[in-house]
Write a structure and sequence with these properties.
Elements: H1 20-65
Keywords: Coiled coil
């Protein structure tokens, strides 16, 4: 897993000339995309914490073995 993974928007706004309904749909789509990316970020943070904890446990075990 790479530490610096980038996420791009799935559906960027294509034109500026949108009517109100299209604009609302785009806004809603972007909100959903933001939620999805926040979940991914949260999971990545949790994975990082677990990897750190795993590393600490391994170090403790190695120290006990001496």
């Amino acid at each position: 897993m790479s530490k610096n993974s980038e996420h791009t928007l799935v559906m960027p706004i294509k034109s500026v000339d949108l009517d109100v309904e299209e604009y609302d749909k785009e806004v809603e789509t972007l909100k959903e995309e933001i939620k999805r990316l926040k979940k991914i970020k949260k999971k990545q943070k949790k994975i990082k914490e677990l990897e750190r904890e795993k590393h600490n446990v391994i170090r403790k075990i190695k120290r006990k073995d001496r």
